[in-house]
Amino acid sequence: MRVATPVLLCADDDRHLRILSNRERINARVQMRIRIVLQAAQGMQDKDIAAQFNIDRRVVARWRARFLAAGVDGLLQDATRTGRPRTAREEANVEQVIRSTRKETPEGSTRWSTRTMAAHCGVSASTVARIWRAHGLRPHRVKSFKPANAPRSAEKLEDIVNLFLNPPEQALVLCCDEKMQIQALDRTQPDLPLNSRRSGAITLFAALDMLSGEVISMTDRLHRHPQWLRFLQSIHRQTPKNKQLHLIVDHYAMHKHCAVMAWLAKHPRFHLHFTPNHFSWLNLVERFFQDISDELMHRGAFTSVPAVESAINTYIAAHNANPKPFTWTAATAGDILGKATRTRRSTADPQP
């Protein structure tokens, strides 16, 4: 007579299984498996356990073997199934969907949807979704930042990251930018969406101190080099004269206007550091602008430009009363460049 392999439980496994078997919120299938193993540990044979629980003997044998091979964890999850192998036609469909997603764009649109790709490849939309999910394709999303290919991009990136990681002594690192077209929009009634009545727009100039989190700001209805120059003069007045000033800015034309550069030449404590193209997210003041949008502008109602200016000034005053610096979490410039390289490789065609 064939005898089943005995099950020997250590004290920890026995206690764990008994706790699980008495737990109310547990899958009934898992509870049955646990009870099978507990009975097997008492020396009962498969046919006797099957008769006790009114199940097939092969089921008992299967879970006895699973426990002996994988322990308690083997009882808590179903066995994986290989499923039906793909046919040659299905393999061709997968390759066509991947190739079309990476190399082609739909006519009259800029990106694929599951329905347009399904019509293009002659498969179902659910098949397209399954292939995209299996291969990590998300044509509806930008997977990462756009890699910078302009000259000296790596040098500029390393320069700015080093400012964040090792700020110079006796100096201030100021992240500067402008939030443009801040609209004065009003609601017709409280708690209703904004109506289309616009009362004007302003630009917010801001310089975020990287170490302290404090913000120097200025608002104006125009966004040209005279306003940027006036903002630089404001920074000059509001910062200690014995401090060098390292300003992180983008490549906007007014930041490099001849009148601005002439003024900077007369004030050598100012040092401009330009972010690489497509790396504007390096500038930490962008995170501050997001907070203003979310916390102030998103639900605000403003009847005039002075009302917007007053609200912004009040918000910044409250922020400066208890400033909190944004923490730079990226390790080095090399890590960021490595991520950009991996992004280019992942979006390229796979090698044959």
UniProtKB/TrEMBL annotation:
It comes from the Bacteria. Pfam families: DDE_3 (PF13358), HTH_32 (PF13565). SUPFAM superfamilies: Homeodomain-like, Ribonuclease H-like. Residues 195-305 form the Tc1-like transposase DDE domain. This is IS630 family transposase.
